[in-house]
Design a protein that fits this description.
single chain; 96 residues; two-stranded antiparallel sheet; 35% helix; mainly alpha; Histone, subunit A; 3 helices; 2 strands
């Protein structure tokens, strides 16, 4: 199966050089072949699961405990607005 690495990299918002595309092309095709091979396994009668082993919730009791004072935490902030950290916008099209 031929995979269009340029198209996939565009979807992932990755800028790849022609050399990188040439390197990743066979790697991506190998991954797809491996997934196709896995899909050949007969799973009739196998119950779907999220994990190979049963998981037991290990929730701890929700208990209020002493924590860092707000002012002490904000003292380390490179920038802040009132009682909040000021962070740079990282999502395209997000409102300021």
């Amino acid at each position: 199966m031929k995979i269009d690495v340029a198209y996939v990299s565009n979807l992932a918002r990755l800028e790849l050089t022609d050399e990188e595309k040439a390197i990743f092309q066979p790697q991506l095709e190998g991954i797809v072949k491996y997934v196709e091979k896995i899909s050949e396994v007969n799973v009739d009668g196998i119950e779907p699961m999220m994990h190979g082993r049963p998981l037991v919730n290990a929730f701890r009791e929700d208990v209020v405990r002493p924590s860092l004072d707000r002012e002490a935490a904000l003292r380390n902030a490179p920038a802040r607005v009132g009682d909040e950290f000021l962070l740079p916008k990282i999502v395209e099209g997000a409102e300021s």
